Amino acid sequence: MNNGRKQFDYSLNYNSLNLREKPELYRVGKGEQGVLLVQPYKSEILPYWRFKTPEIARESSDKIYELFLAYKKQGDFIGMDMARKFLQMGVTRARRYANHRTGQKYDGPVPADQKGRSGSHGRETLPLDADPLKAESAAIFREKYLQAREDPDYQRLRKEWQEEYG
Q1: What is the model's pLDDT at position 126?
Q2: What is d(CA 84, CA 65) in angstroms, rounded to the nearest whole number?
Q3: What CA–CA distance (Å, rounded) separates 109 from 36?
Q4: Could you report the per-residue pLDDT of 116-130, keeping only the tens digit for each?
Q5: What residues of the chain score a pLDDT lower than 50?
Q6: Residue 11 counted as domain residue
Q7: What contacts 66, CB < 8 A, 6 or more positions away?
Q8: Where do the record's region annotations for Disordered lie (predicted)?
Q9: Please, are residues 19 and 26 in contact by the beta-carbon 8 Å criterion?
């Protein structure tokens, strides 16, 4: 069920596509979809995305939120949404490392046709570990993620974007 939204289009050639120049091709999708694909935003945000320690996570999430606000000031919804996705990915990845020391949630390789997609795809879930520092990093990212997600201008622009482009 997609609630009337178009799904993220994984068939586009993101290596050669600049979505700042062709914004009409962008789809919000679900959750973090496309976070490591959409250019030029990936190149602008990824260098700041880190969560190894709470201090690093705070610096990283603050910088990514600053980028969110800069995109907002420019009226760049895609940039805002991509910054939001990186903040969300900070939560999910730090949480995964908090629960699984290696960062691997499942046992066994991801099938080639499933790379880049979430889910177990029939693999066994590994046992949980506990890393309180990574859990704290996840909480730090969550705070900034919620600020971005709940921003009234972001919510308005997201609704307008989805009404216009799907």
Answers
A1: 37
A2: 8
A3: 20
A4: 555 545 545 434 556
A5: 1-2, 107, 120, 123, 125-127
A6: no
A7: none
A8: 98-131
A9: yes
Distance of alpha carbon 121 from alpha carbon 124, whole angstroms: 9
Give the C-alpha separation, 87 to 100, whole Å. 20
In the chain, the amino acid numbered 51 is F
Q: Which amino acid is at 33?
A: Q
pLDDT confidence of residue 135: 87
Indicate whether 76 belongs to any domain: yes
Report pLDDT for 1: 39
Q: Which helix (H) or strand (E) holds 143?
A: helix 132-150
Asked whether the beta carbons of 86 and 47 are under 8 A apart, the reply is no
pLDDT of residue 105: 54
Token pair of 158 as six digits: 């997201």
The encoded tokens of residue 131 equal: 């890393």
Name the residue with tokens 């990093």. Answer: 137
Domain around 153 = 36-103+128-165
Instruction: With beta carbons less than 8 A apart as the criterion, state whether 158 and 81 touch.
Output: yes
1, part of any domain? no
Q: Give the dihedral sign, CA 136/137/138/139.
A: positive
- Is residue 56, in this structure, part of any structural domain at all? yes
